[in-house]
Amino acid sequence: MKIGIKDIKPSKIICVGTNYADHARELNLKVPEEPLIFIKPPSSVIYDGQDIVYPRGVTRLDFEAELAVVIKKEGRHIDEAGAPGYILGYTCLNDVTARDIQSKESQWTRSKSYDTFCPIGPHIETGVDPSGLKVESYLNGERKQSSTTANLLFSVPRLVSFISGIMTLLPGDIISTGTPFGVGPMLPGDRIEVRIEGIGSLSNSVAKEK
């Protein structure tokens, strides 16, 4: 079943870094022993068809295709076996990143948190199994990323359990599960599409900041 993505209001978007081993190698990062998490603010959210704004002062803006989990009900210290009961459904997410800023700062907040840096959509799908979905990105129609969630280092139930042990998850909160190998730069005028099997396509154009 499809649920409108604009009906949810996340209090936070929790993202998982280097959750595919090939992406960790791509960025010369260590494969983490535990989930590596960071947060995007709700003000970074946009939807299918809206523009990603290329900020002034940024010299490299990257796409990152990801499967995102939408939380259904409040939860704290959720065990892995019970995690599915706290999940409303799944959607596509583009973890837009100012890569030049990320590469020079140990904290990722600034590079990940600009307005428009969290496209989500096109809807929430409730009827998919997240354990083996194909995740792809297409830049101007050319495929750039292609993998499957079977390659996640930390599974969806593990992520829900781990994160809920740190912070209370609230209805509408989003957990983004990480991106596979193949991330790359976007320029104003480009169109970036995130496709996830069983969910659909999230498409956004890149526009220069006015």
Task: Describe this structure as you would to a colleague.
It is globular, with a radius of gyration of 16 Å. The mean pLDDT is 95. The strands form 3 sheets. Strands 1, 2, 3, 4, 7, 8, 10 and 13 form an 8-stranded mixed sheet that branches. It contains 4 helices and 16 strands. It is mostly beta strands and 210 residues long. Strand 11 and strand 12 (142-148) form a beta hairpin. It has a single domain, classed as Fumarylacetoacetate hydrolase, domain 2 (Alpha-Beta Complex), CATH 3.90.850.10. It has helices at 21-26, 99-102, 109-112, 156-164; strands at residues 2-3, 13-17, 36-40, 45-47, 52-54, 61-63, 65-71, 87-94, 97-98, 118-125, 134-139, 142-148, 174-176, 184-186, 191-196, 200-208. The chain starts with a strand and ends with a strand.
Structural class by secondary-structure content: mainly beta
Average pLDDT works out at: 95
Shape: globular
Assembly annotation: single chain
Distance between the termini: 39 Å
Q: Strand share of the residues?
A: 35-45%
Tell me the radius of gyration. 16 Å
